[in-house]
Amino acid sequence: MMRQYASPYKGYLGGAVVLNILSAIFNVFSFAVIIPILNILFKLDTTQYAFMPWGTPGAGFKDILVNNAYYYVQSFALAHGAINTLLLLCAVMALMTILKTSCYFGASAVMIPIRTGIVKDIRGRIYRKILALPIGFFSQERKGDIIARMSGDVAEVEASITASIEMLIKDPILILIYFAILTYVSPEMMVFTIVFVPPFVWVMGVIGKQLKRQSVEAQTLWSDTMSQVEETLGGLRVVKAFNAEKKMAGRFEHIIETYRRKIARVSTRQALAHPVSELLGTIMILIVVCFGGAMIISGKSIFGGSFIDAPTFIFFIIILYSVIEPIKELSRAAYGIPKGLASMERINRILDAQNPIAEREDPVRIDRFEDRISFDNVSFRYDGGREVLRGVTLDIEKGRTVAIVGESGAGKSTLVDLIPRFYDTAGGEIRIDGIPLKDLRIKDLRGLMGNVNQDPILFNDTIFNNIAYGVENATEEEVVAAAKIANAHEFIMEKEEGYQTNIGDRGVKLSGGQRQRISIARAILKNPPILILDEATASLDTESERIVQEALDRLMSTRTTIAIAHRLSTVRNADEIIVLHEGEVVERGRHEELLALGGYYKKLNDMQAL
Length: 610
Description:
The protein has helices spanning 2-6, 10-32, 34-42, 61-80, 82-132, 135-138, 143-185, 187-194, 197-207, 211-234, 236-241, 245-298, 310-351, 412-417, 442-447, 463-467, 476-485, 489-493, 512-526, 542-556, 591-597, 600-609; strands at 372-381, 387-397, 401-405, 427-432, 435-436, 449-453, 530-534, 560-564, 576-581, 584-589. It is an alpha/beta fold. The chain is elongated and about 125 Å long. The mean pLDDT is 79.
């Protein structure tokens, strides 16, 4: 999974590899200068060196390299004195250190676009997936949980996995180069040293064994926390009205305390990594010091290999100490990555979610509505539950206004949600102009429709942008014209900033009637041939309903309209009224005809009259 996210940044990864290699090489050279420095300071080497030509028979590359290095240092010391030689070597060491740290910084800087880019890509992919998934998916998922996955889980991936990418590139390079140098300096000490590395890694693996499972549990609890916050913000009016602040605070306290205990266990296990690795590394250093010190004190190799002098032994210890840090970082990465993988699993539940609203490979294009919408023996059920619609057969002809009425739960909203393919039918078929919906391009299908809902869905933006939503390059004249038809222009102009007024989250700065008129203006501007009204005036007071109904009448006059109605008074003039009862069409006709039948519609009408 992470490979596909890292793939666009291959160039940065290549640069990081090169810079880390250079950093390791300069680091080795900076430490190698310590050997002649120690020899000069303590006069440990009295050998007189002569230049040895490269390729001298019987001499290895290492022998020639070391001999000639000492020859040049010794020659410089004879010509310029020991103090000047010492200063020169220190300058060389400082230069190597500057080069090393510059490359190290460069390697770290190169990784920043990778880390930030991967996080951006993951969040972008989640958001696009959320937009692509059908509405039915979100009836099963909590909004707070989805928000937690986009925030907390992605942040955990950034902290655990993307942060570890740098270690996974840098540390293996350092370990390989340092081990190669250690082997070059003293093969038998290297063999002795490497015996302790596998136990070192194994112990760290044991410590992090259960981290992934605990991290999944912790992130799930974090989702519960976000869900509680989201529910509280959405229902704050009810919380206050029922004096339930204490109850909600108690629920939240329980959730965050449970999360605190779980994350404390995860953090404790994570904190254990550093002291354990520090202890193991120190033990390894001490064993090597004892082993190498024994060789120097005795003046011979324990296993009969080449003898190592004190300055070289110090260089060996310095490089060995240097290799411990990348090993520890790798162990921390191996320990931290499971936390990120746990979060990645939760993210993948969204990214890998199947979209049942599939579009065929060669969909039929449609740009106008010519004849009728047909329901042919349509049935529907939610995720294997009871049938919400059964055997619905009806035609909605172009230019007609059809009202859908019935008690709550009769299937009214489900019926109209099938037309733009928010859901797919479980049985039967819906066609537009004789073409099955499943054969149409979804974007074209929904482009034919405009929606005005009972609860207007507005965005935290300006009035202008909310009206122009979904219509590219809408002009000010077009927006104003739509607002006038929707009876919205006057109250908009009363605002200090007019059409550029920000309406707040979900339009909280506007009244219910004003929000609904903005929603109607948006539908007017889109100018769809098919209009779907979902109880558009049900939540309004009498005066607001009158104003909004006038706007709706203008909007409906030249379109095919499907209106879900709770108040039967709003659909008296509909061309046809469809009466649903327990998912079935039980009556249909005009208002007067249905009253004359004396059936279910008359019962609903009489109940509202009371």
